[in-house]
Specification:
- There is one protein chain.
- By secondary structure, the chain is mainly alpha-helical.
- The chain contains five helices and no strands.
- The chain is elongated, with a radius of gyration of 24 Å.
- It starts with a helix and ends with a helix.
Length: 206
């Protein structure tokens, strides 16, 4: 006998499974692209001539390699310092704002503490997911920039374009996977007696 309840939960489980699978596939694809980028050595060499010349002339390869590493290390240290300072401020902002969200949502719903807590947790999940994506994106960008420069020394523009495109795609897929996972966690954790308006607001905040 057909049961609407059983059918609903089967469809819900199947949809959740597909969402998580899509997120995992996105992460695996991002890892594969990052692995391809990591195989490029930070070493100057080869430029060609005429139409086959690279976008950047090599000159003294040993001196260029040394200079590339110096610039890479300087940018890496600067990015680390920036992220540390930025995320220290972001952490306290997110923490304080989540408390504010909890109080305001609870107060606006007649002191429904569960709804306020659910909304605050959704905000925290979205905020820390965004911070994690930004951190990984910065690391991948710094890691890939020097390798894009090295690829620009090769004949034509194909190698450097592919390196830069792969680096951007890694960030995009990480965000895609994080958004899918965090949003689905919020939907999956909702209870049948939770007001739809509160749920949608929590997802929007996330």
């Amino acid at each position: 006998m057909f049961s609407p309840t059983v059918w609903y939960f089967n469809v819900k489980a199947s949809a959740s499974g597909l969402i998580y699978i899509a997120g995992i596939v996105a992460l695996l694809w991002a890892l594969s692209q990052f692995f391809i980028i990591s195989k490029i050595p930070v070493q100057s060499g080869g430029g060609g001539s005429g139409e086959s010349a690279g976008l950047i002339s090599s000159g003294d390869d040993e001196a260029t390699t040394k200079r590339l590493n110096e610039i890479y290390e300087a940018i890496y240290e600067g990015a680390e310092s920036f992220l540390a300072a930025e995320y220290q401020v972001c952490f306290w902002f997110v923490l304080c704002f989540s408390v504010l969200i909890f109080v305001l949502v609870s107060w606006g719903t007649g002191w429904d503490l569960f709804r306020g807590l659910f909304t605050a947790v959704s905000f925290l999940l979205g905020a820390f997911t965004s911070m994690a994506s930004g951190y990984l994106g910065m690391k991948v960008a710094v890691y890939s920039n020097v390798r894009t420069t090295v690829s620009a020394q090769k004949p034509g523009w194909t190698e450097c374009f592919n390196t830069a495109f792969r680096a951007g795609a890694v960030m995009g897929k990480i965000i895609f996977a994080n958004v899918l996972g965090s949003t689905n966690v919020i939907f999956a954790s909702q209870h049948s007696n939770l007001n739809l308006q509160a749920l949608l607001f929590a997802v929007w905040v996330c």
